[in-house]
Amino acid sequence: MLYFNSNKQQDLLVEEKLTILMCRISLDDEESKQLHILLSQPLNWSLLLEISQRAIILPLFFKHLSQEQFLKYVPKGVLTNLNTIYRNIALQNLRIQSQIKEILKSMQESNIPIILLKGAYLSNCLYDDIAIRPMGDIDILCQKSDMEKASEKIKEIGYKQFKFPQSSLHFTNSNHLIPFEKTNKLSIEIHDYIFSAKDKNFEVMNNIWESAVPKKIYGFPILSLSVEDEILHLSCHLYKHLSTYEKKFYWFCDIHEIIKQNKNQIDWDKLYYRVQNLYIDKQIGTIFYFMKDVWHSPIPENFLSKKDEKKEKNLAKEIFSNNINYFKYYLKIFNDVWSFKGLKTPIIYLLRCFFPDRSHLINRYEVKNNAINWILLLLIHPFIVIFRAFGRVITTIYYEQKNRFLSVFL
């Protein structure tokens, strides 16, 4: 198998190729051989570490580079720093495990069935090392009828919900409630849906619950998504964030490893049927073609099409771009806001963006909580929002035009 052999992959820097290659749990013989080849080339270790830190996969780097066969390539100081980060994330994830146990215990006491999503589930059931799958929050899926009950149980163990400018949309155009927060803890998001939030198909969600697989985590009985639904959920989640600006490479690793570790169990016909029912062929096609072409994930050829290749054509280079495409980001918000019937939700959303709660303004600008500061911020904040958005869009357009110019003349 040849790695990085297509035109779009050959344009990648050696450091970028290394990032892709090491963004997986284990390496087969061909991948190890390729890693030897890349590591033997002249490397900018500062750039490599910068890319991996931005992609949040430093623990995976340490896992691979600390193997005896690769030690000769790695500067000693680099390995020491990676080891420190690896240990810190391991300790952090141990604390998060205690937090997850508390949530599971609370839900079990009230007989509320839940499905752990993303990192909360994968770090325990997919990854073989507690340190290599970071977590930014804890996501749980509840049945729609249990949302209120689950919310109350989370509040009983000390979590609170805080409003923020976009909170008006979280009850109308999101898969989850406003996040639950607690000091020194990860935020908790309670979902009732795991695909596109615009057109919720709860008949499909009922099928997903029926297909859920009983599991035990930390001694607590839970349900997990079927492998097909897990793949679709993670792919849709990745697609959503790529269309804005977030690029956490362990999301690619999640998808690659689930497909790789379950390649003989995946019912591709069932998966295809689910894609058609949910009208998510655009999202899944783009992600699947990219995973097949760049990560070499074992996805059947007949599941892909030439249309998917066109959608994916610039993604290999874009995922390493340090420039946030704010034009796409604001366009997505605009589409979300104006997709509702009537004017009530868009008006509430805009009002909360320009005139958020007093506590939000005081905390955001880090000023003393008094009436004068609050009134001043109410007057100034709308102009700051407008000028910041305008500046971001102009910067995005500038960098896109600059890159287009360089690609033509260089």
In short:
The protein has 19 helices and seven strands. The protein has 410 residues and is mostly helical. A three-stranded mixed sheet has the order 1-2-5.
Q: Can you walk through the features of this model?
A:
There is one protein chain. This protein is mainly alpha-helical and 410 residues long. It has a domain of 84 residues. Helix content is 58%, strand content 7%. The chain is globular and about 65 Å long.
Report the structural category.
Answer: mainly alpha
Beta-strand proportion: 5-15%
Q: What form results from the Cα inertia axes?
A: globular
Strand order of the largest sheet: 1-2-5
Secondary-structure element pattern, one letter each = HHHHHHEHEHEEEHEEHHHHHHHHHH
The low-pLDDT segments are: 167-172
- Whole-number mean pLDDT: 84
Number of helices: 19
Give the radius of gyration: 23 Å
Main sheet, how many strands, which sense, barrel? 3 strands, mixed
| Helical fraction | 55-70%
Count all strands and give the number: 7
The assembly state of the depicted protein chains is single chain
The end-to-end distance, rounded to whole angstroms, is: 31 Å
